[in-house]
Amino acid sequence: MKAYVFSLSPVEERFFLEWEDQHADDEIKYTTSPLTDDTVDLTKGFDAVSVQQMEQIKDEKIYKALADNGIKHLAIRQVGVDIVDLKLAKKYGIVVSNVPAYSPRAIAENGLTGAMYLLRKWGYYHRKMRRGDFTRPVELMSDEIFNQTVGIVGLGRIGSAAAELYHALGARVIGYDPVYNASLEPFLDFVDLETLIKTADIIQLHIPLTKDNVGMFSANEFAEMKDDAIIVNESRGELIDTKALIVALKYHEIGGAALDVLEGESKIFGRKFEDVGSLPEDYTELINMPNVVMSPHSAYYTKMAVKNMFFQSMTDIQRTLDGQAAIFQVK
């Protein structure tokens, strides 16, 4: 197998070397840079590429260059494939795969952690304590999770894991998904999206981004939510209208937001800013709110998940090059 790995992060290096040790006959090269029009020529002489990046791969020139270079498989080391143009990949005969289940619990647990932080009002306490105020005002009395109704939007592998976690803590769990899954009945009640939005105390998003659901949570949805409800986004930032979210938080139309993703996050996440004053205004406003907790698209970031992302990606490449169907091919 001859494969080129793009955007290899420092934490992936140990798993890159582990794969090499186990597959001595493979020729694998890597770069820390993403796959772009400027780097696509690195793929000459290889059969497949593996990427994990936020940069879009939508330019037809990239797909033509990949095909001309002999690339047969484009493996995405993540769940979301919205960075890829599947029609162009098909046009140039390139198989696309992703890693849909590297560790569903890692992401589900991160969402639960954010929800609990907000439910117990830690952000408000932290702000007060930094000012030397260690009192417990009435308005900061919190609720317990078993008294909450949790709504999960999207009941795939990650959403299902989230439902099981909340159910185990005693919460009432309701869920919305266009596809009914009877195996989830022990953990939740299926409802329509409107009922979920109006009923849930905590709403957690676990759905892929499509052109049809951009901004699916905006001013109208926030107005329908309970005024103390918490929204948790572990999927894609563009599912939430950020400006509408800021307004809803400022004017207490909702209670809080736990965000692992953010609209336009590729300009921020994964980078270090020496001048924090240069950060986008929306991010700065959100991060300074006591009823917001954020992480830099790091919900997946566990040892098990990172290894699984790399190994599953490479395994599917191997299958394609051996004439077998990729286990996680995206069509």
From TrEMBL:
Keywords: NAD, Oxidoreductase
PROSITE patterns given in the database record: D_2_HYDROXYACID_DH_1, D_2_HYDROXYACID_DH_2, D_2_HYDROXYACID_DH_3
Domain D-isomer specific 2-hydroxyacid dehydrogenase catalytic intervals: 18-330
InterPro entries for the chain: D-isomer_2_OHA_DH_cat_dom (IPR006139), D-isomer_DH_CS (IPR029753), D-isomer_DH_CS1 (IPR029752), D-isomer_DH_NAD-bd (IPR006140), D-LDH-like (IPR058205), NAD(P)-bd_dom_sf (IPR036291)
GO molecular function: D-lactate dehydrogenase (NAD+) activity; NAD binding
Pfam families from the UniProt entry: 2-Hacid_dh, 2-Hacid_dh_C
Domain D-isomer specific 2-hydroxyacid dehydrogenase NAD-binding: 115-299
Family: Belongs to the D-isomer specific 2-hydroxyacid dehydrogenase family.
Name of the protein described by the UniProt record: D-2-hydroxyacid dehydrogenase
Organism: Lactobacillus porci
Taxonomic lineage: Bacteria, Bacillati, Bacillota, Bacilli, Lactobacillales
